[in-house]
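Ticket #4471: structure export looks truncated?
Reporter: QA, pipeline team
Priority: medium

Steps to reproduce: submit the single chain below to the structure queue and open the exported record.
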Amino acid sequence: MRLMLTGAGGFLGSRLLSFYGEKNEVWAPAHGELDLTDGGAVSRGVRGFRPDAVIHCAAVSDVGACERNPALSLAVNVEGTKNLAAACGSGSPSDGPRLIFCSSDQVYFDGPAEEKTGMNQFAHCEKEILHPVPVYGQHKLLAERACRNLCPNSVILRLSWMYGELTQKERDEGRQNLGEIVRRMVREDVEWSFSDADYRGVTDAWEAAGYVEAAFSLPPGIYNFGSPNTLSLYETVRAVLRPLGKEKLARPAEGNRPRNLCMDPGKARAHGIRFRDTARGLSDFLKAGI
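Actual output as written to the record:
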């Protein structure tokens, strides 16, 4: 299979490249090789490589960076995606590549609504009318619409926050994730604070990478694509540490704004994509590392 992968230098993208690179012909252009904000270059790149599928992971994914520089976020996260969707959708549906667009659970963060009603401990579904607060969430939603309009054959995956064992390069860059934090807490008996108002699923990046192949054959549309959860981050970590008798290492970080990013993965599950529950996945990751 011929795959085009954008964002191969990122956390998920690098794992996708490792997972699919050995058994497929993969073109993973870096920014210097293909500027996604250049529509002509994107069109020529897709026509020249003629991929069977395009996995679009490239993004300015730092939520804070998008708030500070919305113009950059708009250019990369929206216009870059439009260019890729237009290139994939320029031919007939039977001829063009399948576009797999990596969106985000941030499209579900409607801060004012949640503050008015209190924390809604329900899982979001794909059919909701959305009014995201973060610039990143707003731009991901615009990019989703561009994919559906310009490349109707698109599959849009709303991804959660992810964790996984870090490479040495990632460690040197100061990266961290929830899985690595929980492992450190257990290894060093160190306390850590987690929001008791932040409800979201957190997914093993390798599990997500493995299921992307199944997404190639999904019917076009939007799918919640990650581990389910109904607990706050604080409650989640305590649940993971409880079997080890170390749940007191998790401290509540109070005073945070309510946020519910929990996703209902039922639509993907109906197609055989079954993510582990967040606490179960984190427990498995913890056991594998201690």
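Status: closed, not a bug. The export was complete when the record was re-opened. Leaving a note from the reviewer for reference: The CA atoms of residues 66 and 249 lie 33 Å apart.
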